[in-house]
Design brief:
The protein has 116 residues and is mainly beta. It has a single domain, classed as Jelly Rolls, CATH 2.60.120. The termini are close together. The mean pLDDT is 94.
């Protein structure tokens, strides 16, 4: 499964993992030593995140129920918090720095999709 930015027709991740129950959402990326470019974690339902106990920075995209981008957070270091984001129901987490530059540019209003 791939995650694409449907608006710009770019592949954001070619390996997608899900955290969609209490335990998987609670754990998230905690305990992972690394995350590779091309990977993402989709957390649902979710409207706020933290990076406590994490070993690396992340980029995060907050989406509404229709998978439209409502907020982008870049290079969130360990032990930081993002307060609840209005209308967010899904968060996609990437290795910090993934959303830097033009190749993976994501903006508020873009639409993301999962494909096979």
């Amino acid at each position: 499964m791939k995650l694409i930015n449907y608006t710009s027709n770019t592949v954001l991740a070619s390996k997608v993992e899900f955290a969609d129950n209490f335990l998987s959402r609670l754990k998230g990326l905690m305990g992972k030593n690394e995350m590779l470019r091309g990977e993402c974690l989709i957390i649902t339902p979710c409207n706020s995140i933290h990076t406590c106990f994490m070993k690396f920075p992340i980029d995060a995209i907050f989406l509404d129920k229709n998978w439209q981008v409502v907020k982008v957070v870049k290079y969130l270091r360990p032990w930081k918090f993002v307060a609840p984001v209005r209308n967010s129901q899904i968060v996609v987490e990437f290795l910090g720095g993934t959303l830097k530059g033009r190749e993976f540019r994501v903006e508020e209003g873009d639409n993301l999709r999962l494909t096979t």
